[in-house]
Every structure is written in structure tokens, then in C-alpha cells.
């Protein structure tokens, strides 16, 4: 997965339905739309994208999401010999135009200065180290805790060379499935409480429990076809560590959330 910076200049294009798109994100967890990629042809389905608002103050990052298609062509110019490039995308966050992550925040940081944040067109790639920091700062700006440990279960590992206690273990996992932003979307939609037992760590432990929760893949990674693009709303659910462990007590096919709820009801009768 590569991260790209798309651009939006209200002087050039009026985002007339931005309020509708913001409402759609609030309702469904994402909004689907097309976006120009300038002259960039490298963006692929599953790549991460951020939208930089330029041209009108305040300038800064106004949206984030994922590409859901490779770059496509469109004859939307009057001169049919000229073809526009665009992607389909799912945007998990769209801010009010006056509530952006300020561009000055990015321009005044040593790491962020590696990137030119005022490109002439959409589609600039962001270095991996900068993209990782941007995800963290974007989540902090949105008040979405994302720095939470994640446990790897057997069905979520493609290969492993050792499972002995105390020994070195090398595992290869699908990086996109582990993307922090996908986790953040899931929690934004369903909350940081267990989908099985409804346990809320913040109520039990106060501040140190805020945002702590595991995220469970409804479709085991071993069952997912190659090239599958995870949908955080449809494919992930927050669960507490205990329920997560119990879900994976059945192999090879884990219990579903509803099955585990039924087990709990029967055990407490």
C-alpha cells in the first residue's frame, strides 16, 4: 500500500455536495466518489489517499480515504483528445472546509518538510516514514486513538517459522489488513467497546482504558482471496481480548460474534 496526496482547490472546483458527503460518512462510515489524480497513473486500488485543500484559507488536509480502483481515464474535456485521470475512492473522513489539519503544521516540522505540500496537481506519493507519522497525527487531530497493541492469531498469519515460547518468531502478515487507519474507521463506526460482551475499557479503567480494544476480522484472512480489499465497516468489529480469544477457540473456522453471544447467554442461564 502506498500513500498519495490528492488536491482540492475551491477556486478551481466547487465541492458543491460536501455537506452531503460529510453526512454520508457520519451515517455509513465512508463516502464513495471519484477524484482526479492529475497526471499520476500509479495509484492502485487499496492505496491510501489524503486530500489537501489549497488555494483558499485555511489550507490543509480536509479528507482521507482509500482508492477503490486503479487510475482510470475519462473524456470529460471538450477536447476529446485530452483525457482526464481519476480514481474511485472511499473517503472515511471529510472535514468542514474551515476545520482542516493546517498546512502550517506540516510545513513547520522537520520530517514533514521532506514533502512538498502545495503540489500543482493531485497524485503526489508520500514517503513511507512521512505517511506513518501523518496517520498518527491525523488520528490525534481527529481525536481517534490508534496506538493500540494488536494480537496475531493463527488464522491471521500467512506463514510462520516457529511458535516455540521464547524463540524468535518470524511472521508474514497482510500489511493492509493491519493498517491503523482501517482500525480507526472501524472504531469510529462501532465504538471502542466489545461487540460480543459490550465491555468498555474506559468505563472499567478510566483514562488508561480509553480507546483500548481489539479489532476482529469477520472473514478469516486464510479465507480471503488474493487481492481482496478490506472494508473496515463490513469486515471488522471491535472485540475485547477475552472474547477475541474465545472466537478463535474453534478451528479452522472461528466462532461468529452471534454464535459467541449465544454461548454467553446459555452459560449465564
Distance between the termini: 47 Å
Number of separate helices:
8
Shape, principal axes of CA atoms: elongated
SSE pattern: EHEEEEEEHEHEEHHEHEHH
- Give the biggest beta sheet: 8 strands, mixed
Poorly predicted segments: 77-81, 145-178
Gyration radius (Cα, Å) is 21 Å
Describe the fold and architecture.
With 269 residues, this protein is α+β, with helices and mostly antiparallel strands. It folds into 2 domains: 3-141, Roll (ph1033 like fold), CATH 3.10.590.10; 154-267, no CATH class. Helices cover 25% and strands 21% of the residues. The chain has 8 helices and 12 strands. Strands 1, 2, 3, 4, 5, 6, 7 and 8 form an 8-stranded mixed sheet that branches. Strands 9-10 form a two-stranded antiparallel sheet. The chain starts with a strand and ends with a helix.
Topology at a glance:
Elements: E1 3-8, H1 18-28, E2 31-36, E3 48-53, E4 60-67, E5 72-74, E6 84-94, E7 101-102, H2 103-107, E8 124-126, H3 128-141, E9 159-160, E10 171-172, H4 180-190, H5 201-205, E11 214-217, H6 232-235, E12 236-239, H7 241-247, H8 257-267
Parallel strand pairs: 1-3
Antiparallel strand pairs: 1-8, 2-6, 3-4, 4-6, 4-7, 5-6, 9-10, 11-12
Could you name the key traits of this structure?
single chain; alpha+beta; 2 domains; eight-stranded mixed beta sheet; 12 strands
Gist of the model:
With 269 residues, the protein is α+β, with helices and mostly antiparallel strands. The chain has 8 helices and 12 strands.
Amino acid at each position: 500500500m502506498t500513500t498519495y496526496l490528492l488536491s482540492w482547490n475551491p477556486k478551481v472546483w466547487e465541492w458543491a455536495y460536501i455537506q452531503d458527503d460529510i453526512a454520508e460518512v457520519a451515517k455509513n462510515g465512508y463516502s464513495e466518489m471519484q477524484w482526479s489524480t492529475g497526471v499520476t497513473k500509479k495509484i492502485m486500488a487499496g492505496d491510501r489517499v489524503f486530500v489537501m485543500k489549497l488555494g483558499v484559507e485555511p489550507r490543509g488536509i480536509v479528507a482521507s480515504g482509500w482508492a477503490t480502483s486503479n487510475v482510470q481515464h475519462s473524456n470529460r474535456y471538450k477536447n476529446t483528445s485530452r483525457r482526464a485521470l481519476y480514481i474511485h475512492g472511499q473517503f472515511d473522513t471529510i472535514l468542514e472546509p474551515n476545520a482542516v489539519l493546517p498546512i502550517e503544521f506540516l510545513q513547520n516540522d522537520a520530517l514533514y518538510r521532506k514533502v512538498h505540500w502545495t503540489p500543482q496537481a493531485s497524485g503526489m506519493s508520500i514517503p513511507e516514514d512521512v505517511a506513518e507519522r501523518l496517520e498518527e497525527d491525523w488520528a490525534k487531530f481527529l481525536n481517534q486513538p490508534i496506538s493500540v497493541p494488536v494480537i496475531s492469531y493463527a488464522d491471521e498469519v500467512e506463514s510462520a517459522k516457529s511458535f516455540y515460547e521464547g524463540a524468535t518468531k518470524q511472521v508474514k502478515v497482510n500489511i493492509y489488513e493491519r493498517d491503523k487507519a482501517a482500525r480507526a474507521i472501524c472504531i469510529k463506526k462501532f465504538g471502542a467497546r466489545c461487540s460480543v460482551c459490550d465491555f468498555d475499557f474506559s468505563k472499567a479503567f478510566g483514562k488508561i482504558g480509553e480507546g483500548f480494544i481489539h479489532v476482529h476480522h469477520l472473514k478469516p484472512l486464510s479465507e480471503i482471496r488474493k487481492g481482496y480489499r478490506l472494508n473496515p465497516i463490513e469486515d471488522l468489529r471491535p472485540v475485547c481480548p477475552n472474547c477475541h480469544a474465545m472466537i478463535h477457540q474453534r478451528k479452522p473456522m472461528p466462532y461468529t460474534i452471534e454464535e459467541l453471544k449465544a454461548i454467553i447467554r446459555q452459560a449465564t442461564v
